[in-house]
Design a protein that fits this description.
The chain is α+β, with helices and mostly antiparallel strands. Helix content is about 45%, strand content about 10%.
């Protein structure tokens, strides 16, 4: 990776850096005197994405009794992922699954022995009772998260629906105020009243063309 930055194949991302961490290693590279790493179009993105992936994969932990740690570790490492995926899909559909094969029994035993699966801290919105999320990549490989959170002590989806449908509830009023404050737009050429006047004046001109019924002007031909 990046042979133009590491022409001898040494010192790249993930390579052994001795006593310093990979995070400090990346920081040192980005502060290199000739700015080759700062000005490269791909290196900063890959470096920071690498840190995000590391943080995401090491942000949680599994808790169990100390006496069972070695056995559970071995079972997790030897578990058949295809069987685990199949069990998860069947359980997601609401199927009552009874483990039959030895592989299925290993997967169930792992779940039985684990006491906790957690990130080890209170969430940003309070104590989380449950969550489900997945990390996706955009077209330019930017990582982003889709997440559902269930906050401990929060209202249920049915209760939220009833409050939203009630026109006299404070919940509905505060929710609308939040959405209107969070989603806003501004005009470039003045306020709403001024823009409306400009559009009305333009519409009465003889050469007016409705922009919603026309195609954009194509760019000029490239220079020869």
């Amino acid at each position: 990776m990046f042979p133009w930055l590491f022409p001898y194949g040494l010192g790249g991302i993930g390579a052994s850096t001795g006593s310093i961490s990979t995070k400090i290693h990346k920081a040192n590279l980005l502060m290199y005197h000739d700015k080759r790493f700062q000005t490269d179009t791909g290196f900063p993105f890959v470096a920071f994405s690498h840190e995000q992936v590391k943080a995401a994969t090491s942000g949680g932990f599994l808790a169990t009794e100390k006496a069972n740690f070695r056995d559970i570790s071995n079972r997790i490492m030897s578990a058949d992922r295809s069987v685990l995926t199949d069990l998860a899909k069947r359980l997601e559909k609401g199927e009552f699954v009874v483990p039959q094969t030895p592989e299925e029994k290993v997967c169930y035993q792992i779940v039985k022995d684990l006491d906790c699966v957690d990130s080890g801290h209170t969430g940003l919105y309070g104590d989380t009772s449950a969550y489900y999320g997945t990390v996706e990549q955009q077209g330019r490989m930017t990582l982003h998260l889709h997440l559902l959170l269930w906050i401990a002590g929060g209202i249920t989806p049915d209760e939220a629906r009833q409050k939203i449908m009630d026109p006299n509830s404070n919940f509905q009023k505060e929710l609308v105020e939040y959405l209107e404050a969070a989603h806003r737009g501004d005009f470039f050429n003045g306020d709403e009243h001024q823009v409306k006047e400009t559009i009305d004046d333009t519409k009465v001109q003889s050469d007016y063309i409705d922009p919603t019924r026309t195609l954009p002007v194509p760019p000029p031909n490239p220079c020869s």
